[in-house]
């Protein structure tokens, strides 16, 4: 019967070698970064994509003039899209619906979830201002039929109507529906639908690239110590902890 013999301390040393991380100095890291060539045109397109998607029409126009970068869509459509978004954020949902239909009637015709959420937001606004009878009538006539066709719609409708059962609706179990975040959520959904209808990405590329950076750094952390970017707003390289 064979036996395995280990020199005392040998196993720990082997484990230490297998788990040790490579240390990359700031000088080495900055040299690697300089070796990466990125075209200015690509950077400009990334900036323009962010401005257009987020709706900064004045900044996009100024950037177009200064950099010569052409947007992928007509900048005039940004103003119309932002008007819809602003209307939802202000609680003027019916006005937003009319503006969407003026832009492209097919947006709501082909997106039942979006239309339901807009109508749900209208119901929330009626409840917010204490229009109980109008809210009940609107829920019964406009939302209940859609709830019968879709279980998820029915559940959302029940949660919304449940607000009427509480005197202090802001502090009830469903009070978050009255938060500004609910308006922003609906406005973001409308914004994405309009962008999609214009054959444009619904989300800007820049945040996705930053998420990829964070993911890549987390993966690299397991293998090396290197100058890391911890503050994305400044992109400052911090020396590796050795």
From TrEMBL:
Q: Which Pfam families match?
A: CTLH, LisH
Q: What residue stretches are annotated with the CTLH domain?
A: 77-134
Would you say which domain of life the source belongs to?
Answer: Eukaryota
By its UniProt entry, which InterPro entries does this protein fall under? CRA_dom, CTLH/CRA, CTLH_C, LisH, Ubq-SigPath_Reg
Query: What is the protein's given name?
Result: CTLH domain-containing protein
Recorded source organism is Platanthera zijinensis
């Amino acid at each position: 019967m064979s036996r395995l013999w280990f020199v005392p301390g040998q196993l720990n040393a082997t484990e230490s070698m297998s788990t040790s991380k490579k240390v990359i100095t700031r000088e080495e890291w900055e040299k690697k970064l300089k070796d990466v060539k990125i075209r200015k045109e690509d950077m400009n397109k990334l900036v323009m994509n962010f401005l257009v998607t987020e709706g900064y029409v004045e900044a996009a126009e100024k950037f177009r003039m200064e950099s010569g970068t052409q947007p992928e869509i007509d900048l005039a459509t940004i103003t119309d899209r932002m008007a819809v978004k602003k209307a939802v954020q202000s609680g003027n949902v019916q006005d937003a619906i009319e503006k969407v239909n003026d832009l492209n009637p097919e947006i709501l015709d082909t997106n039942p979830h979006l239309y339901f959420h807009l109508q749900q937001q209208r119901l929330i606004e009626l409840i917010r201002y204490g229009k109980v009878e109008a809210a009940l009538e609107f829920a019964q006539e406009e939302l209940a039929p859609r709830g019968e066709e879709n279980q998820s719609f029915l559940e959302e409708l029940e949660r919304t109507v449940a607000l009427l059962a509480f005197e202090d609706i802001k502090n009830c179990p469903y009070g978050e529906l009255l938060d500004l975040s609910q308006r922003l959520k609906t406005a973001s959904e409308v914004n994405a639908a309009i962008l999609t209808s214009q054959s444009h990405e619904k989300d800007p590329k820049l945040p996705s690239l930053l998420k990829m950076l964070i993911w890549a750094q987390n993966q690299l952390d397991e293998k090396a110590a290197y100058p890391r970017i911890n503050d994305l707003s400044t992109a400052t390289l911090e020396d590796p902890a050795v």
